[in-house]
Amino acid sequence: MIRICVSGSRGKMGSRIIALAREDRDIEVAGAFDIDGDPEQSIGKCDCLIDFTAPKATVEHCAICERHKKAMVIGTTGLSEADTARIRQASRVIPLVLSPNMSIGVNLLFKLVRDAARTLGAPYRVSIREAHHVHKKDAPSGTAKELARVIRETRDDRDIPIQSIREDEIVGDHTVFFESPYDTLQLVHSAKTRDIFALGALTAAKYISRKKAGLYSMKDVLGL
Question: Which residues, 6 or more positions from 20, have their beta carbon under 8 angstroms from its beta carbon?
Fold first, then answer.
């Protein structure tokens, strides 16, 4: 049994993580807190903290996990280089999963995009389009940035245009276009509900709670 704690427990993501965790026989919700709660006390009761909050709060919660030697799953986006550096530092002491997108489908998309970029090569121009709800603060999305990074890692392409759309209550759509003078290949992922991120986070919590200190990704969690 993995004992989890959920930060941002009254938020859209936090509430869904808690609801789905309570349906999982392998997970116990040992703690939960929101902006007005006591993170230190709640984190102390768990094996792993799941955090989908805001960069400043995430870094603060990471420091608490480090003090208490608790594993952590981070799905927060909009982290700065300094935030990421602090998380990397904490991973020397505790096991951490850090991912811009916890969806199993999106992480498979990363692999498919990598394979397509390698196979298609330079004749194909690449662009990315992402769409999210109007409440999302960061743009481009962390997932779009990761898609661009995966492509750059595979081929020498520094100029990858990213179009960001913020409309209505779109959960999350990502499309990668590979265009040549002769054809177009599109790789698309569309999230129907936030539950896909919540389920991915719970999968990550089960994985990371049994690992040694280090920084892990959903690629590690899923064995991709």
Answer: 195, 198, 199, 202
